[in-house]
Structures are given as structure tokens and as C-alpha cells.
Amino acid sequence: MNKALNILVTGCGGDIGQSIGKMLLKSSFTKNLFGIDISDKNAAQFIYPNFSVGLPISHTDYLFKLEQFIELHAIDLMIPVAEPELRFFSEQNILDTIGRAKMITASSLALEIGFDKFKTAEFLKKEKLPFPKTFLAKSLKSIDNFPVILKSKTGSGSKDIHKLNSMEDFLFYTKNSIDDYIVQEFITDKNGEYTCGLFRSSKGEIRSLIFKRELTGGFSGYGEIVENNDVTCLLEDLAVKLNLIGSINVQLRITNNSPKIFEINPRFSSTVLFRDMFGFKDLEWSIKNLLNIDLSSYEPPLVGSKFYKGFNEYIEN
Predict the structure, then answer these.
(1) I want to staple 213 with a disulfide (CB 3.0 to 4.6 A). Which of 176, 194, 220, 252 is the partner?
(2) For residue 135, what are the β-bridge partners?
(3) Are 280 and 209 in contact (CB under 8 A)?
(4) Tens digits of per-residue pLDDT, 169-190?
(5) Rounded distance, CA 43 to CA 165, Å?
(6) In which element (H, E) is residue 118 found?
(7) What pLDDT, in 10s, does the model give residues 16-64?
(8) Cβ-based burial of 10 (10 A; exposed 0-12, middle 13-18, buried ≥19)
């Protein structure tokens, strides 16, 4: 495979896909950049030189049309970023190639564990890694200690996350469906919330970056780089026990001076562009790792460096 690649990003319309598009436009690995999304009502069409609307994964022709697109445009490398697509590829065990194109995803165990929050808790428990107590909502007859967190076992984002203060709250939010929910011990955020980039190469080299962040509308709107040896050691331990190859995002809070992992997102995160700007180039490293190119050296950024999420506006006449 040549260094200059025809690269396809699917699910490119969201914030992660747009960030990856901006990075790939500047990358020496990019020959031609293509983006597919299920809608054109987003700014990706102004970022990707070759943008098109594709089928949702629920469509029976989804995989066939994707393979056709890859063959037609001689795609060398495909990067799926939308969570529904990544779940689909994980469940179908399609993680290495589609047609002629190589794929960049996290390794299979990271995907399997990260996409099921109850499996995440069970994995962390089995591996003796710190995590909040977690239960399947349908298994609970009562809850003794409030507040607790109710969240979708398989969902993403903040829309299906609720802080509950009573059994009345629990019954209200689960009245229509309970099967997909978990109940999780509430960890106070008085010490902040942390989102961590975690990358491990196929040779076992581990790199991590810790942001203390604040959410704005469900995504990281502000963050500050921190140094915490306990968190770094925990991330390295997690990477090894997950047999991680690739890049994931780990969310945690600190209680009683101990970090607890409450979520593993087995994909590039919404901070991927900020991480790249700070020198934590996990997208570039993922491409190099796939091409068996030695990773460039990494100099951790200065503690206390900050990021702020802004917005771009586009118009079409």
C-alpha cells in the first residue's frame, strides 16, 4: 500500500467525523479524501472534497453499496466513526478489510466491552480495575442508596443518562422500557470529570493523555491537561488487559483519591482534534500502525494547557 492513500470516512457528518476530516485534509497520508454520511444536513460537505450521502446500516443493501463505493473510488483505507456503524462491524466481525480497503477500528475485545456498559462493568470487576457498582435495571427490586445514575446499556451520548434521587424517579424513567438500562453508583464530580485518550500499538507501545473536562451540550466544551500517575497507571493496565490495538476514549471520575472508570468508548472521541493539536496524534499513529510504519516520538504537552470548543459557520447559496 502506498503512503498517499484514498481515504474514506463513514459517518462523517458528526463532530468526530468533521474533526477527522479536518485532520486528514492536512495529512501527508491523504491522496484523495472521501466522506459518506446518511444526511447532507451537516457541515461535513464543506470539509470533505468528495462528500456523498449513503445508506443507513439498517438498509439491506448497506454493505453491498459500501463495497461498490470502495471499488469504484479505489479506496485504500476506511475509517468508520459513527457508533452504529462500529457496532455493526463489531457484531459482524468485519474489522480488518471491506473489499479492497483496510479498516481502522479499535481491536475486537475493546469494541465488544466498550459497546455494552454492563459488560464494561463486569470486565473491570473481573480484572480488578476500579469502577462504580453497576446493576442491570431489570434485576433490581429496590434501590437502597440514592442518588444513582440510570443509563442505557448500549446507548451513547447524554440523552439516555438520568440522575435518580428516588424510586419514583426510577419507575418514571423505566415505565416504558427497562431492558436496556443499567443502574450505576453515583460518583460525585466535585473532583472533576476526566476524559482520557488511550492508544496502544501492535508492538505494545502505550500512550495516554488526560483531560479534566467540562461538558457543553453533551460534548467536551472545555478541557485542561492534567498529570495524574494513578490515572496513567490505570490506563496502561486497562490497555494491556483489553489487549488493545488502536485508539479508545476512557471516562472516569476520582473519589477518595482513587480513579474509577465509568465508561469506555471504543472509538476516536470528540476530543480527537484537540489531542492532535497537543501532539497526541492517535489518528496518525493508527494509520502508521496499520501500515507498519514506526511511530513518531511523542512529547507530552504541558500540564495546564487548555482547549475550548468553538464552532464554524457555513452557508450555501
Answers:
(1) 220
(2) 183
(3) yes
(4) 999 999 998 999 999 999 998 9
(5) 39
(6) helix 117-126
(7) 999 999 999 999 999 999 999 999 999 999 999 999 999 999 999 999 9
(8) buried
Residues 6+ apart with CB under 8 A from 305: 224, 225, 278
Q: Which residues contact 79 (CB under 8 A, 6 or more apart)?
A: 7, 8, 9, 10, 20, 103, 104
pLDDT(225) > 60: yes
Instruction: Summarize the confidence of residues 258-277 as an average pLDDT.
Output: 96
Residue 204, sorted as left (phi over 0), alpha (psi -120 to 50) or beta, turns out to be left
One-letter amino acid at 82 equals A
Amino acid letter, 309 = K
Q: Any idea what the Cα angle at residue 181 is, between residues 175 and 186, rounded to 5°?
A: 105
Locus of grid cell 448497506: 62
Which residue from 210, 138, 147 is spatially nearest to 174, judged by alpha carbons? 138
DSSP string, 23-80: HHHT-TTEEEEEEEES-SSSTHHHH-SEEEE---TTSTTHHHHHHHHHHHTT--EEEE
> Do β-strands 5-10 and 30-37 pair in parallel, antiparallel, or remain unpaired?
parallel
Task: Give the list of residues 6+ apart from residue 179 with CB closer than 8 angstroms, or none.
Answer: 138
Residue 219's pLDDT band, with cuts at 50, 70 and 90, is confident
Nearest to 130 by CA among 225, 21, 253: 253
What's the pLDDT at 158?
64
- CA-to-CA dists, residue 132 to 50, 168, 182, 216, angstroms: 44, 22, 12, 24
**Cell numbers that stand for 140 in this block:** 433490581
